[in-house]
Fold:
Amino acid sequence: MKKNKIILGILIIGWLAVIWGHSMQPAVVSAGESGKWLEVLSKIFPFLQGENGEHYVRKAAHFTEYAILGVLLALELAYFVKGWLRRFFEPVAFALSASFIDETIQLFVEGRSGQVSDMWIDTAGAALGILITLAIIGNRRGKRAY
Structure:
């Protein structure tokens, strides 16, 4: 069990590096990356071909990055924290803190801006990831699920 906790801790740190690394990209680089995703996704989802397509891709990226973080956080805490509410709210609080740092980083990057609305999207993504993870692994404490 301790080995799993260490691996999850490393994955969480690595994933935070990915998230914050994206935030450190200047607007031109970030827009280029979003454009590549938009090109691929608009073939699958035609509604993205409109003028707001890049906006939707960017917001979906925020949501998805933090949903993955939520899954990792829920797995890390699920068997070491008592009570379902604490297993939900502690990782949500961590994700909200990570999102705050994420948006703060963007304040110092050329062409980027930190947005409170993105923090809400990030937190919603994390909450969904946490809820799905807790629903799958159940409310078992001390039992191995992974």
The longest helix spans residues 53-77.
